[in-house]
Amino acid sequence: MTIDTAGNPGSSARHQPSLDPAEVEKFSRMAAEWWNPKGKFGVLHVFNPVRLDYIKEQVTARLGRDPLVRQPFEGLRFLDIGCGGGLLCEPMARLGAEVVGVDPSEKNIKTAGVHAQEMGLAIDYRVGLAEDLARAGETFDVILNMEVIEHVADPAAYMQACVSMLKPSGLMFVATINRTGKAFALAIVGAEYVLGWLPKGTHQWEKFITPGELKGWLAANGADVMDESGVSYHPLANTWRRSRDMAVNYMVVAEKRRAN
Q1: Rg (CA), the chain
Q2: Rounded to two decimals, what is the model's pTM?
C-alpha cells in the first residue's frame, strides 16, 4: 500500500496501513527540513553518530566484516524503514551497502532522492510501507527500524512483517522510546515543549514501546535480541552516548533464527 502526500491511502487501501495517515502528513510537512542541522530534525543530526557507531559495530562483529576496511558492508543488502530524508541511508551506502529506503511520504522520498543524487550516491528510494516490501517477497541482510515503531498503528503486526523480510541470521536494529514516566518527562515534555528539539505532538506516550514488548514481538516471529543499549543525552557536550539506562531512548539488535 502507498500513501499519497496528503496521507491518504492509495488504491490498495484494503490492506491495513502500519502508519497512521496523520503521522505521514505530520512528517511530510517537515520534509524539506531533513538536511538542515539547525532545523526541525537537528536533534537527529546530533543523534546520528551514536546510531551509526552501534550499527557498524554490531554488523561487522556479527556478520564477520572487517571494520577497518573502507566499505565493510559491501555485498550486504540494507533496508531503512521510515527513511525520511535519508540520514541513515547515505552513511550505509558509503560503507558499501546496497540500500533500499522506504517511507510513506512522497515528499520525504523526493528530498532523500535529490540529496543522494547531489552526493553521488545510488540509493533505491521508494514511497510505501514495510508491508509493501514484505508482500513482494523482498529480503535483506540488515533492516534498520529506527524511531519508527512508536508511530505505527499495530506494532505487533508491523514487527511480524519486518522480521519476515530478514534473511536467516540477518540483523534487525530497532531504536525507540520506553513507556516510562521518565520518558514522558524527557522525550515529550522536555524535548517537545521545553527544549523545542521536536515539534509539539511528534510523540504520543501511550505509543511508546517497552523493551519487554519489543523482545516478545521479535521472539514470536523468530528473531532474538542479541544486544541492547540505552542512549542518553549529555547536554554539556551536546552529544548522545550509549548507556545502561534504557528508561528513555534505547536500541536493540536482533538476529533471525535459522530454520531447523
Answers
A1: 17
A2: 0.84
